[in-house]
Input
Amino acid sequence: MDLINILPDNVANQIAAGEVVDRPAGAVKELLENAMDAGATQIDLVVKDAGRTLIQVIDNGSGMSDSDARLCFERHATSKIHQADDLFAIHTMGFRGEALASIAAIAQVELRTRQHDSELGSQVIIEGSHIVSQQPTACPAGTSLAVKNLFFNVPARRNFLKKDSVELGHIEEVFRRITLIHYDIGFTFTSNGKVLYDLKAGTLLQRIAGLYGNAYKERMYSVEEQTDIVKLRGFVSRPEYSRRTRGEQYLFVNGRFIKHPAFSTAVEKAYADLLPDHSYPSYFIGLQVDPSRIDVNIHPTKTEVKFVDEHALFAILRSAVKRALGQFSLATELSFDTPEEFNIAPAPKDYVPQQPRISYNPNYNPFRASGSQSHQRKIESFEDLEPLDKPAQIEKPQPVTAAGACLQVQNRYIVTTLSSGLALIDQQRAHERVLYDKLTQSSNQAITQSQTLLFPINCTFSAADAEMLGELLPDLKDYGFEIAPLNQTTFVVTATPTDLKEADLQPFFDQMLSDYKSATLQKFSNRTRNLCASLARQMAVKSGTVLSQEQMQQLVADLFACPMADTSPSGKKIITIVKPEELLK
Output
């Protein structure tokens, strides 16, 4: 009996959709890339309910003819390649010819498109790979493609989607990956009727500022290099603006976002000895490479790329970033302005300077032992010299005793005694645990320990971060912050918790929101605990901070009062016990 069957087209398309469109963000990526390949200079993205209800991309590109409007939904239908050799000369974003067929297999799709030299366009409506209708229509030049009710006929996959905030976060990340490198195209991003981003065509630095806030213009160093095998251009963050996550690290090759661990390592190695432990730079770097020297066809999402000249590119990238860090950090230290201390007023016309006088003790003898002058004698030879005073005895440090005297090691660890031996405590992780427990225990009641700032501080964010911060304002008020929106992207801070010692609030909130987003996407699902973990991480005393004896003792006491004193909120070990028998060795 024959067992092998040819799958129906709709089933084959659903299988292909699993590789290309695993969530709404996958559909967004494919539609945006198609719009760019059509030569659009303005692209608008509209989503509702994080893409579940609607994903719409509108562009002013070339548009399609009536026949192309229907043919584009067939599998392996593409205008990008015609023969196998074309795969090694890819200059477009999409080329497989599977995107629209895959999307149409799992959603209800409406396409409206018109070429610029045509009076009428074409409207195509498809549901689950079946063409419902195609008819002429009046529409603007370009293409509008609306994807409605994603996964309506694949309920199992729809049930695996995360909550809206998570799915919207993935869409934003796709939007950033595409818009960052295509800064010559204007983009808008609207979610549930609210404009999150309105990006004008401009320079790469302007695009970075448009996505992450104007403060980034002052945080970046320019990187540029050109060789026979690569043209490199982009920006890297100044070392003092490093982050504790790798969220803002973007590498592009020929206009396409890629993931390449070796190249990421090359950039981070350029920061050797410039960053604290567990801190990472931000970077936005584009590479232009001969398409025949790379292979982008090894993964359906095309984010993994193989390079023929990988070792050479690694060295060039590291060298270019290292040179930029050295060049610009030195330039910022050099100032050709005359220092104020050298702005000396000229002397009066009749001024006569006085000759300086020197006073000295003629009886001073550096080789004489301390005492009265009666002990002085004439020195006629080296044998007549009196012996120097013996150096003072250096007092030995007091040992750690059972009474709890604390010691600080490398300004990072606190050493104290327990009945089981010596305890080495990571001060930053310990403080994170103390603050986290304090914040979570106070989640249902307002914290009154806040400090009013002498001068209000304005903080500016990207549209997406500003919206997120706006949603968190009630929670932040409970934790001692007084923050109010000044406009769509700027907030004014008038009070902070007493535990917060940060002087610069902009980096504090930037990192807090970054940690909050990362935790939301990866690990934590509880909003309150997520926010508490982000705040604790930012407010904790950092490694390298010198602590007084009282501060160490208080931190140790607070830590051992916590139910989970051994583990930080992020799951890292806080305490290491050195037992007496280990000390004897």
The two ends are 74 Å apart (CA to CA). The chain is about 30% helix and 20% strand.
